[in-house]
């Protein structure tokens, strides 16, 4: 008789469903249809530990096949799980308060964090314009979303996993200059940092420290074209990945992000500058976007200028652009490209490169 033991285990998994709903109302919807490009995002919604979700509405579709449509997507922003299976339905709420023109998924989709799924051709833009009395009560559109979550329920051992704190700990290394191995000098101010972190986050710093350059040999970097405030905002982002406070310096941080190859920080700056677009600063914003290859910001600035051409053309920034950067004038308003407006200011200064 053998001494082998047979061990049996009894495991039990049940699949349950849970519904969560979101009602998203957008005011002054005609402005979105007529003036805005790109997308807008709803407030987040969630239920317990099932992650945070939002809706995204694209004005001119997603891709060439949907340029005449509104596209609507649901996005999983954050989840404690590696993925979530979910089905969803979307409707427009009519003037009578009824859910109409609905679309839904037949099968559950596998959502990962930052993954979006939806309908590129949700509804024709012209159909909304032709039925505004039915779909836009008081010039508002309301989109109703129902999400059905599929969850597998296993026995929970009850162990609490500590909060992820690495970004805080890396930020502390920077804030307190702990275990540093290089010196950066900005406008006469000295800052101590870590070559490994700089090289991991920035391709420019990586090239600087990888090759036989003076900065690599001396562990000393002189930075001549940044102000300390913008530099510290950039370094905080490098160490923690968190969006910095860009108040009154989004343009300077955009320049820093462009120089050091920090693409996500560039887009954060583009977003901040888009929110601050005015008639007075539109021409300068267009120049910045072109100078730093900020594609999304340039698109928004061009659209803004075209929509307010008569007002923008009277500003000193525009007249400076006519004299110094006619190629941008041609992009913004081709009919005004050869206007002989006087130059009221010296040409816009370009960022120095070290």
TrEMBL record:
<dbReference type="InterPro" id="IPR002083">
    <property type="entry name" value="MATH/TRAF_dom"/>
</dbReference>
<dbReference type="InterPro" id="IPR008974">
    <property type="entry name" value="TRAF-like"/>
</dbReference>
<protein>
    <submittedName>
        <fullName>Speckle-type POZ protein-like</fullName>
    </submittedName>
</protein>
<comment type="similarity">
    <text>Belongs to the Tdpoz family.</text>
</comment>
<dbReference type="Pfam" id="PF00651">
    <property type="entry name" value="BTB"/>
</dbReference>
<dbReference type="InterPro" id="IPR056423">
    <property type="entry name" value="BACK_BPM_SPOP"/>
</dbReference>
<feature type="domain" description="BTB">
    <location>
        <begin position="180"/>
        <end position="242"/>
    </location>
</feature>
<comment type="pathway">
    <text>Protein modification; protein ubiquitination.</text>
</comment>
<dbReference type="InterPro" id="IPR011333">
    <property type="entry name" value="SKP1/BTB/POZ_sf"/>
</dbReference>
<dbReference type="Pfam" id="PF22486">
    <property type="entry name" value="MATH_2"/>
</dbReference>
<keyword id="KW-0833">Ubl conjugation pathway</keyword>
<dbReference type="Pfam" id="PF24570">
    <property type="entry name" value="BACK_BPM_SPOP"/>
</dbReference>
<keyword id="KW-0539">Nucleus</keyword>
<feature type="domain" description="MATH">
    <location>
        <begin position="19"/>
        <end position="147"/>
    </location>
</feature>
<dbReference type="InterPro" id="IPR000210">
    <property type="entry name" value="BTB/POZ_dom"/>
</dbReference>
């Amino acid at each position: 008789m053998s001494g082998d033991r047979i061990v049996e285990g009894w495991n039990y998994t049940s699949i349950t469903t849970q519904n969560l709903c979101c009602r998203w109302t957008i005011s002054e919807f005609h402005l979105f249809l007529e003036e805005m490009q790109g997308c807008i995002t709803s407030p987040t919604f969630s239920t317990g530990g099932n992650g945070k979700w939002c809706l995204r509405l694209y004005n001119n579709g997603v891709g060439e096949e949907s340029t005449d449509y509104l596209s609507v997507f649901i996005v999983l922003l954050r989840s404690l799980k590696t993925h979530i299976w979910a089905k969803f339905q979307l409707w427009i709420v009519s003037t009578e308060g009824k859910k109409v023109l609905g679309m839904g998924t037949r099968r559950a989709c596998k959502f990962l964090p930052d993954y979006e799924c939806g309908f590129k051709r949700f509804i024709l833009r012209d159909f909304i314009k032709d039925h505004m009395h039915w779909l836009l009560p008081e010039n508002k559109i309301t989109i109703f979303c129902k999400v059905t979550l599929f969850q597998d329920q296993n026995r929970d051992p009850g162990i609490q996993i500590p909060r992820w704190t690495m970004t805080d700990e890396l930020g502390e290394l920077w804030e307190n200059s702990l275990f540093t191995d290089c010196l950066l000098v900005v406008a006469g101010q000295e800052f101590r940092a870590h070559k490994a972190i700089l090289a991991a986050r920035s391709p420019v710093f990586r090239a600087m420290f990888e090759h036989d350059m003076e900065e690599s040999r001396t562990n000393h970097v002189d930075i001549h074209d940044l102000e300390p405030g913008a530099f510290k905002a950039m370094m905080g982002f490098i160490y923690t990945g968190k969006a910095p406070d860009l108040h009154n310096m989004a343009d300077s941080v955009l320049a820093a992000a462009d120089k050091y190859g920090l693409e996500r920080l560039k887009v954060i700056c583009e977003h901040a500058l888009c929110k601050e677009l005015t008639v007075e600063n539109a021409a300068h914003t267009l120049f910045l976007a072109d100078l730093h290859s900020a594609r999304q910001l340039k698109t928004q600035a061009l659209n803004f200028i075209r929509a307010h051409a008569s007002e923008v053309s009277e500003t000193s920034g525009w007249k400076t652009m006519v004299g110094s950067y006619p190629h941008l004038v041609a992009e913004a308003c081709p009919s005004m490209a050869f206007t002989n407006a006087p130059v009221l200011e010296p040409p816009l200064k370009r960022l120095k490169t070290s």
